[in-house]
Amino acid sequence: MNTVVITGANRGIGLGLTKQFLHNHARVIATCRNPIEAKELQALSDNTKLSIYPLIVNDAQSIARFSEELDGRPIDILINNAGVIGGPRQSLQDMDYEAWSEAFEINTIAPFRLSATLLDNLHLSKQPRIINVSSQMGALSSTSTGHHAYRSSKAALNKVMQVLAIELDPQGIIVCNVHPGWVQTDMGGVNAQLTVQESAAGLCNLIDSLTMQQTGKFFSWEGEELAW
Ligand SMILES: NC(=O)c1ccc[n+]([C@@H]2O[C@H](COP(=O)([O-])OP(=O)(O)OC[C@H]3O[C@@H](n4cnc5c(N)ncnc54)[C@H](OP(=O)(O)O)[C@@H]3O)[C@@H](O)[C@H]2O)c1
Question: I want to staple 27 with a disulfide (CB 3.0 to 4.6 A). Which of 3, 21, 51, 146 is the partner?
Answer without folding.
Answer: 3
